[in-house]
Amino acid sequence: MSEAHTSTPRCVALVGPYLSGKTTLLESLLHVCGARSRKGSVGDGSSVGDTSAEAKSRKMGVDLNLAHGSFMDDEWRFIDCPGSVELRQDMMDALSVADAAVVVCEPEIERAAVIAPVLKYLEDAGVPHVLFINKMDDTENRVRDVLAALQAHSSLPLVLRQVPIRDGEDVTGYYDLVSERAYHYKEGEASDLIPLPESMTGRAEEARAEMLESLADFDDALLEKLIEETRPDKSEVYADLAADLSGNLIMPVVLGAALHDNGVHRLLKLLRHEVPEVAATAERKGLGGGGEALAQVFKTAHVPHVGKLSLARVFRGRIKDGETLNGCRVSGLLRLRGAETTKLADAGAGDLVAFGRMEDVRAGDVLTPSGAKLDVLGWPDALAPVYAFAINTQDRNDDVKLSGALQKMCEEDRALTVAHVADTRQMLLRGQGEMHLSIAFDRLASRYGIKATRDRPAVPYKETIRKPAVEHGRFKRQTGGHGQFGDVHIEIRPLPRGKGFAFEDKIFGGHIPRQYIPAVEDGVKDYLARGPLGFPVVDVAVTLTNGSYHSVDSSEAAFKQAARIAMSEAMPKCEPVLLEPIAEVRISVPSEFTSKVNAIVSSRRGQLLGFDARPGWKGWDEVTAHMPEAELADLIIELRSATLGLGTFTTRFDHLTELMGREAERVVQTRGAAAQ
Ligand SMILES: Nc1nc2c(ncn2[C@@H]2O[C@H](COP(=O)(O)OP(=O)(O)OP(=O)(O)O)[C@@H](O)[C@H]2O)c(=O)[nH]1
Ligand SMILES: [Mg+2]
Hints:
Layout: E1 10-15, H1 22-32, H2 53-58, E2 65-71, E3 74-80, H3 88-95, E4 100-105, H4 116-125, E5 129-133, H5 143-151, E6 158-160, E7 162-167, E8 170-176, E9 181-186, E10 189-194, H6 201-216, H7 220-227, H8 234-246, E11 251-255, H9 264-274, H10 278-284, E12 294-303, E13 307-316, E14 318-320, E15 324-325, E16 328-329, E17 333-337, E18 340-343, E19 346-348, E20 352-356, E21 366-367, E22 387-393, H11 399-412, E23 417-421, E24 426-431, H12 434-448, E25 452-455, E26 462-465, E27 469-477, E28 484-494, E29 501-505, H13 517-528, E30 540-548, H14 556-570, E31 576-590, H15 594-603, E32 607-613, E33 620-628, H16 635-642, E34 648-659, H17 661-670
Parallel strand pairs: 1-3, 1-4, 4-5, 5-11, 6-11, 29-30
Antiparallel strand pairs: 2-3, 7-8, 8-9, 9-10, 12-13, 12-21, 13-20, 14-19, 15-16, 17-18, 17-20, 22-24, 22-25, 23-24, 26-31, 27-28, 28-30, 31-33, 31-34, 32-33
Helix pairs in contact: 6-7, 13-14
């Protein structure tokens, strides 16, 4: 058991900011693992990942890319995650089954903050993570400056493992601070061992001392050696590095250029020695070692011609094709590599597989042969939506097809939800941003052949009244045979904001028989669904004060009609006024952007309520404001463009407020009574 590696496959997720080079790194990892004879590229569309039409047309990752390889007899499973903030859900879900993450970032200083959300998520989820600073072939920035900028966004100390060797401005190799060896990069191959250039010895020693000091913070024996100026054994340093990564005490940092395979061999070696095994990951997630076979599903994919696939990690035991898990049969056990699939007879602990046609299984489910309920593994919450489209079919005959397709797409992507809004009679597709929803929209066409249209979501305005009124409504019809007769006197008065609707019956002496009174209330409510301005009416009280009936002709329907008549006569005289929904919005941004947020809030008719440090986020603020819902539809777009894509917000309905003047006129003209 003292061996640094075992034969169980380990799983690493590639995460990090948008376009930092994760899919390129996957390609390079597979190349170094010998899993691809020719290395592909995202540039010409020949990579293992990003093969879908939606990924190719956008030149970005839109899905999880799974792949596998072996390096020095160790089995690896890779999950390359899309970097866009709008596609974070996939990353979060994939991380819940990974043994570790490689955070891929660019060697940037001004935009270093783009790494913050990923690091914060990894820290909160407790996933061990290594930082790979990519694109070292294309930078003049000094590594120590890049590191200082990145450190501001990590709670864990960044522990630099290599220093770059430069020829002029070009990075041509690196010095490994643990093995104390220098290497020269070689395109497509492992680097050559070279002597450390003399000019670098000072910097190398300094960086090595810094690394050891960071490790000594967690190892008293090492600290003593450093104080006594004894050189620690390499094996001791390696052991510390492995323990500190697994224990989420440090974030080791390596350098490279995935495009040229630079530093990738070294990265794999680091992973080989330091990434925890699946048993340790299971333990980290609260799962004991013994017991029956167990897998957790982290993603559902509906693949044309294949059907539903449940992507899962086996945490324990061995699972066979055809076996029953949670009462559902595994019909097809597959290994995925990009868009390719390979059939397997069985899969053991550590493996990353796809179970075929388990219709009742959802992402997050923990599967076992006995189906025992286990919630120890944990599962991230679905992200709350920040953007929506109202969606419709161009051809009404596609309506059933549309709801079937959306159901599948929402199952595949938990950050995507569909809701029918009764007030506005719209079907809303909600998600993480314009691009997230556009991808879904494109898929409706490319996968399901559905042409849909999209609109802005309508704001659910309401209306109320400012003055009371009394009214008499009579419905009388004589059309041969049975007639119809209902007669009511009502009083209408405004209620305070937020009180909704109240109905009171003050009939005495049987002027209207009891059985007709609910019909009067129904008639009033019917009317209130669309007031004089064209919107649902709220905050009114209606009192039935008097009336009369006919022993033969009166009916529930007649009283309902009489009530409607009384309401439609009275309400326009009650000074109807439009009510606009106001939300409480909490906007989170790095504090350097707080003043920009204040300006955005004011320009959108918002009222600032205050700002504070964002709980648990170093260097971030949370601004709270009341903002009209009408101003929130594209808030995320403006917010992201003002904050390097980092700003986010949550919102919840707070209250309704009167809307008057030009804006109210415009709403009534375009959406209300005048428009219908
Ligand atoms: N110069 C240079 N360019 C690179 C390197 N690695 C990746 N790139 C380029 O960076 C761009 C993005 O690469 P991807 O691999 O698609 O990045 P990604 O992180 O997977 O992107 P998303 O999944 O969309 O977040 C491409 O144009 C790559 O060619 C590198 O090491 N050096
Ligand atoms: Mg990618």
